[in-house]
Amino acid sequence: MKKYLLISLAAISLVACAEKLDDTSSPVEKGELETSYIAVTLKSDDMGTRADSDDYDRGIPEERAVKNAHFFFFKDGQPFVVTDNGSVTSPGGEKNYLKLDLSGETPDMPNISDIKDKVLVFRNYKGEYPNQIVAVLNWDPKAYIYTLSDLRRVITSVGNDEKGYVMSNSVYVDAAGQMVDAVAITESNIGTSADEAKDHPVTLHVERVGAKVVLTTGRSDNLYPVGKTLQGKEVYVKILNWELYNDHETSYLLKNIDGYKDWTGDEFGFSQWNDYNWFRSYWANSLYLTTPFPNNSFSWNDDVKNQAPGPESRIYCGENTKQVDDRNYTNPIDIRTKVIVKARLVESDGMTPVEISNWYGQDFLGEEGLLEQVANSLKISYYYSEDGGVTFIGLKPEDIKCVARNPEDENAYEVYFQLNDDPIHNATAKTWYKYLDGQYVKFDDISILNDELASVQPGLVYKSGMTYYYTDIKHLGKPDTTTGFGVVRNHVYKVNITSVSGYGTPYYDGDIKYIEPAKPKDIVTFVAAQIYILSWRVVSDGYDV
Q1: Fewest C-beta atoms under 10 Å: which of 6, 59, 128, 444?
Q2: What are the Cα distances from residue 277, in Å, to 173, 205, 273, 465, 527?
Q3: 86: left (phi over 0), alpha (psi -120 to 50) or beta
Q4: Does residue 334 sit within a domain?
């Protein structure tokens, strides 16, 4: 027999609704109909007494606001069909969820805590009840009928839009070792009046499907000494802005903890990944980034994604608990979510850029210093002649230029060398020779000389002081472990920069989009960062990156 519910929703007592139900709109099937009531209360984990501790962050009002709530009904995981009186639903007039529209209830969108003892009133056949319910907030279903398995497969965006931040039932493992994602409904929850239903409400714990990252600095001026001097001048780093890298824009609608029976916690670097006393779990299976990776690039001049550091700065992202992407790759790609910190090397005034270059581990001032050093090393190998090979002149600094590498190269931060083709010097117009085995050998093709220059040890140029640092976001893992990196829903990752060491990773062209962030080889460069993880839950975690 199909199970139908004729349901309306009310904010307070709906006892009088029974008189308004129209029997003519009820399903035309044999059986005795009755009116039943279920009271629902929503709770989020950043509410109650725990929100007063240092481990939790209530977040901003917009993050707790609810514009609509959908309640999905199941019986043993299968859809428990409901119908709306007079409304247009699916072509067959069937669906297994109800929408609670809260947008007009108050001048502002209500808080999660406002959804308390809301009464669902329905007409049902005697003895036919759903036994599971799932709440989803600020999300619109794309279909009319969902099994519980269907909901588990749904992927949704995590950012805020006109509907607010998407939230769904908290998923965890109960004391009996069973996964809980749908909340049980018993016959005691179903009353014959609104008041009776309120005596035995169904409580649903909800959590946001996304996470939030905030970057702050330990200095109000965002200016840090790097512990290095160049030509007697102390170099500083000015933190300018930041963004996320390998950040997901989507998550599963319901937290995916498939395989939890094999989770000991050791592989994460923390032991307590589940806490049924608080209806929470602290790990999940995340999606892979799509291919090609839509967010897997960044540029120094990207004003769209950039955020200025500060307690109000924030970027939302989806869950990412994967360390590498090894799908069809010979060499797995690091796909941890990272915080990219963009900065400029400056003088003590915090404003005057310091352009630094490096070759074979030695620092120079400016790009000119690098070209001079390279030219001095190569002038005994490469010569040009202006008189047909009678007089030979060794390579000069103005004859060569720096060229940015392909951003997809492994060491994309490096520069290589080519003949200068600018209108003033135009070294490509000269006749070039290579001094080899005591004789000058003419280059018949300039491209051959450029190929040889490209094979010279590459250099580093912090053009106009442009640099960046990055740190992987660590979840609850211990600082000295290589596991536990990840971003999990309903957590706030507060990254606070406490110090900076080294020049960072250079940027030669601020408009180039780098595909893979990397640290320069053989150069000490890191930010020391404390990461506080809130849920909005927290653990203190300080480590160097």
Answers
A1: 444
A2: 10, 12, 12, 51, 37
A3: left
A4: yes
Q: Mind listing the pLDDT tens digit for each residue in 38-85? A: 888 888 754 333 333 456 666 777 888 888 889 899 999 999 887 554
Pick from 481, 465, 468, 477: which is nearest to 533 by CA? Answer: 477
State CA 274 to chain mean position distance: 22
Give residue-wise pLDDT tens across range 266-311: 777 777 889 898 888 999 999 887 654 445 788 898 877 789 999 8
pLDDT tens-digit map of 479-504: 667 778 889 999 989 888 988 888 99
Nearest to 134 by CA among 57, 74, 50, 178: 74
- Structural Rg of the chain based on CA atoms: 31
Question: Do residues 317 and 347 both lie within one domain?
Answer: yes
| Domain limit, last residue, from 439, 456, 473 | 456
- Say yes or no: 204 and 233 in one domain: no
Q: 179: which strand partners?
A: 173
Do the bridges between strand 183-184 and strand 179-180 make them parallel or antiparallel, or are there none, so unpaired? unpaired
Domain check: are 428 and 514 in the same one? no
Which two three-digit tokens encode residue 436? 């080899």
Which residues on adjacent β-strands are paired with residue 244? Answer: 339
Q: Are the C-beta atoms of residues 280 and 535 closer than 8 Å to each other?
A: yes
Give me the number of domains the chain comprises.
Answer: 3
Domain end among 430, 456, 482: 456
